[in-house]
Specification:
It is built from eight helices and twelve strands. By secondary structure, it is of the alpha+beta class. It starts with 18 loop residues before the first strand and ends with a strand.
Length: 331
Amino acid sequence: MEHIRVEGPFLDELGKGQVFDAAPPVTLTYGGAAVHQSIVGDRLALALDEHLSRGVLGLPGFAHPALVWDVAIGQSTVATRQVMANLFYRGLVFRRAPVIGDTLRTVTRVEGLRRNRPRPDRPASGLAALRVTTVDQEDRPVLDFWRCAMLPVRDADRAGAPDDDMALIGRSEIDEAAAELVAGWDLAPLAARPGSPRLADLPPGTVLEIAAGDIVSSAPELARSTLNIAAVHHDAGAAGGERLVYGGHTIGLALAQAARALPTLVTVAGWRSCDHTGPVREGDTLRSTVEVEDLVRPLPNGLGLVRLRSTVHVADGHRQVLDWRLIAIVA
């Protein structure tokens, strides 16, 4: 009998332009949304209130943005099963807002490769820049972004080590695309909702420190439910002794904390960048601060597109683990 070891791909087995499109499509369901909410939290009224969703979008079941990007990232892990760490995300933009019942399908394309400098105390590794594109059941664009994964090298002696400049990957301006998300929305119901602080109360430079933290729990359950097959999130041996928490878990908790501080936060339209600055383990307690960087543009009914920066720390020792620059819609 033939014995086949299921693993990879490794960095040196990837090529620029290579496409991964075999991840199963995922239909967004209320059950899946409830599981996701139980792990990372959800205080966005637009995702919680069917009547508000219908009034704003004309459809019930607005899908929480963190659920959508977690599914897309999970689908992209067909290219990163062996990932050692995910360094950054860039240029993420929602092309449309999916609703419960939509089916998401993701294609991942290799756009850059770079071998890390060899070190005697570490196995050979390198970086893979991936373009991730998600569409719905009608092939309508939903998400588009880049991620950078660190992967091991299978054959360190293989010739022709790539050396692409990762600083150039995903450096696209997304303000205009983010503004297009709300085209066709009726923003009046959002403006009529109670809550503070309002957009007018948030001048650039405002910093909101969220005093209460959130414990990281059910990490492998989140990875499983979003099709994330990266071994380090499931197998302690693959992670060198202790599982790593999926980066989207940290981002989801950061968004939940931002929504606690800003009840008038409607949704996230895009990410300018998102850097994982340190590892997160299950059982860590995370705290964050949210800074209002600037107003991208005003929207009707007193709403606006706002650049926010969320920085997340592990409560024990104040070790920073996330630096996330997002574009949010605030009422």
